[in-house]
Design brief:
Layout: H1 10-24, E1 28-29, E2 35-37, H2 38-42, E3 55-57, E4 63-66, H3 71-77, E5 85-97, E6 104-116, H4 120-137, E7 141-147, H5 148-156, H6 162-174, H7 177-184, H8 188-198, E8 200-201, H9 203-210, H10 217-231, E9 239-242, E10 253-261, E11 269-273, H11 275-280, E12 286-293, H12 297-304, E13 309-315, H13 321-332, E14 338-341, E15 350-357, E16 360-366
Parallel strand pairs: 1-5, 7-9, 13-14, 13-15
Antiparallel strand pairs: 2-4, 3-4, 5-6, 6-12, 7-10, 8-9, 10-11, 11-12, 15-16
Length: 368
């Protein structure tokens, strides 16, 4: 199937393009069942994007769930072999509360996971594929990158209890300077957390400022090296360092990131290293991955596509079927999309309107 076919929905075209991209880099497709035991999700509910899970009782009495997430299933079923890396992508439907409708929906999701003996190249490759995924969606995109190791360096210096630490991390994610000041008080360590909250900008701007922020030189070097690897591909102008990209530290560590495109008010891509989640699920391997939320592209599609169809053919009720079919075929053979109707459908957006009567074609509207 041609992924540029204009008859496909925007999210379907993106799905085909992303699958081709990931396959090109040697990622194998991962297929899974629609169901998992509910216990898998309830034990890791904080990891899920949506709180809602659709459950049912299996014939053997087990409580099952329609999968709201793919990553947990991949971890559960992955095999570990020392010194190796498993590279997988998925194109699966998940079942969760949609951000746009607030009701349960079957949502198409595409993503990839890199699991095993993860090194710097693996991380840089996943970041590259995240960037190229955004480029597939839109010419106007930004990839925000953070490092939870740097965030932990600054927060640990405050010597807070776990409850206060979680509150400060929440402040960083919300860029809430006022509340952070209330929690942290005064002093050099508090000044550093406030500086981190205010930090946002290009790699060239941010990295030098981090050297005076009292954080690990190893973490700064890792962040700098990874972003430098992306600069080799001319992507630096679309990269931003943003420490408000915060994921639950019970699950994530190291590099985390979110991707944005023009026309969508929230992130359409999210990912990071989740070694901590692997450990919680009894796995020794490292892991990094991301997901692209295709349901968020529906609104983008409606804004970017001016017409639903190129040509609308209106035909008389007595027009022979053969005559209508020939007219539709002639238009379709030019590569244009075409739909034939007895009358103009409500809300259908068309570029050209023609009428077919007694074998004669009359152009009624042409907005080309």
């Amino acid at each position: 199937m041609n992924i540029s076919d204009k008859n496909l929905k925007n999210e379907e075209r993106v799905s085909f393009a992303l699958r081709a991209l990931y396959s090109k880099y040697g990622y194998a497709q991962y297929k899974m069942s629609k169901f998992e035991e509910y216990d898998l999700y309830v034990r890791n509910k904080d990891f899920l994007i949506s709180d809602g899970v659709i459950t049912f009782t299996d014939t053997n009495g087990r409580l099952m769930a329609l999968k709201p997430d793919v990553t947990l299933s991949i971890i559960k079923n992955c095999t570990e072999a020392e010194g190796t890396v498993q590279k997988m992508y998925y194109n699966e439907n998940v079942y969760r509360v949609s951000g746009s409708t607030k009701s349960f929906r079957e949502i198409m999701q595409v993503g990839l996971e890199c699991i095993g003996d993860i090194d710097a190249y693996c991380i840089s490759e996943v970041l590259l594929l995240a960037a190229r995924s955004l480029m597939t969606i839109s010419d106007e995109w930004v990839l925000d990158i953070s490092h939870l190791g740097i965030l932990n360096d600054v927060i640990d210096a405050l010597c807070l209890d776990e409850t206060a630490k979680r509150e400060v991390i929440k402040c960083v994610g919300e860029k809430n300077l006022h509340e952070a000041t209330r929690l942290c008080g005064d002093g050099e360590a508090a000044d550093r957390i406030r500086a981190l909250i205010s930090t946002y900008g290009s790699v060239r701007e941010v990295i030098p400022r981090l050297r005076d922020a009292g954080v690990s030189k190893a973490h700064i070097k890792e962040l700098g090296d990874l972003t430098a690897a992306l600069d080799m591909y001319g992507l630096s102008k679309n990269l931003r360092i943003d420490f408000s990209v915060v994921d639950d530290i019970k699950y994530y560590n190291g590099i985390v990131f979110k991707g944005y495109v023009h026309g969508v008010p929230t992130s359409v891509l999210s990912g990071g290293q989740y070694d901590n989640l692997m450990k919680r699920m009894g796995k020794k391997a490292g892991a990094i991955g991301f997901a692209v939320y295709l349901d968020l592209l529906e609104g983008l599609s409606s804004k970017s596509e001016k017409y639903d169809v190129d040509t609308l053919v209106i035909y008389d009720e007595n027009e022979p079927a053969e005559s209508v079919a020939q007219t539709v075929a002639r238009i379709s053979d030019t590569g244009a999309s075409v739909v034939a109707q007895r009358r103009v459908p409500e809300k259908l957006r068309y570029k050209k309107l023609i009428k077919l009567s007694d074998g004669e074609v009359t152009v009624l509207e042409d907005n080309a």
